[in-house]
Task: structure prediction
Amino acid sequence: MRRSLAGVALAVTSMVALSFLIPLAALVMSLVKEQSITAAEQRAAALAPVLTLTTDPSALRESAASLDATEHVVVHLPAAPAIGSSRAPAALLERAQQGRESISQEIPGGWICLQPVVLPGDRVAVIENFVPDRELTRGVKASWAVMLLLAVGLIGGSVLVADRLGAKVVRSSKRLARASHALGRGDLEARVEPMGPRELRDAGIAFNAMAHRMTELLAVERELVADLSHRLRTPLTALHLASERMAGSPESARVEAAVCALETELQAIITAARTPLAVGPMGQGLLGTDTDTDTDTGAGHQARSAAAPAGSRCEAADVVSRRTAFWAVLAEQQSRPCSVEVTQEPTPIGLSDDDLAAVVDALIGNVFRHTPSGTPFDVRVVRTALAVELVVEDAGPGIPEPDRALSRGSSTGSSGLGLDIARRAAAVTGGSTHITRGPRGGARITVTFALAPLPPSGRGPRTSRRRAGWPRGR
Result:
């Protein structure tokens, strides 16, 4: 591209320079010639008054010497030899004498000027002034050389400027091309520094925005894959318990093996979704950068937005009641004392039923997976002035590192997604998640959801949702 731009600048500047140089050179030559001829005519006219006063050859020579024209000025007196060396053709000289006509024309070797002067007695003398060719072109070559040097300098400068501009454009284009190839090979960190002309800067900004958006979308996709895989662990837990009840039957071993294989596959999917991108030989990979510790901005925010579309809302108490009814069966099978308490007040939050159900399943599922059978746990839904609190606590060993447990993928001994699902769901509504040690000595997880605005036809108080028949584990 640089060579093309330099060639275009060279061609255009050369055409412009030639279009000015050729007429300007001709004009300079014409002006020099005209000035020389005018000077010759002026010298002849200046000598005419002297000739009317005297025809003495010595006086005429002195007058010509004072005009600095001794060499080329010749005076033709009537009936007398010419004063000086004449170069005028006889025909022109006779025409000037007979017709008393001023003549100025080109002759071989230069330019001749003939000026007739009428003397007393009606006699005619002729003043001849010859201008040689070297006088007609004096200074023309020097002027042409100066103009040529200026033209060469102009052309060289324009080519240099075009090359510099082209270098900037080429540099920006090459950087954009390299970044595009790197992004195509799977390097999601590839970015460009916008530079060059405005159009290329806009292209660089658009490329960076595209790469950033692609990274966010891949992170969202990975989180959704991991979260959906984690949700499948809830029915797997039920299958495990069912297979335990079938112990001793011919089908129990086969069912347990199938459940274990399925859980292994789910764990492999979650691990692959959390593994940084591995680029293949053809530049193809799985997913982008690791987002295990995403905060409330960037890809984590995009994933949460995808999990809770605008306008989603549910009654937290209703959803918790339905999900605890499911887990009550499993708790009874494992002899786990469990209680659930929900508020009678409206509990609208900005999540869909499925999203809140995933939070409840993740928290209660962790109790079943990480505490031994028979360990009691409690579930409560409490409404405060501005929020709804979901509290799940157990009598297990607790969580030794609460902050690390809330970081996606950082928990030990598990996929580390359950608590992160709860954290991100709370963040969508403007709430938070906290892990402490409860009165039973185990983990106490409090998920706070900000209240959503009530619909126009607000719901009044409801009856208590305490589940009958659940053993009080306190």
Notes: Residues 2-53 form the longest helix (52 residues). The chain has three domains: 2-140, 199-304, 308-474.
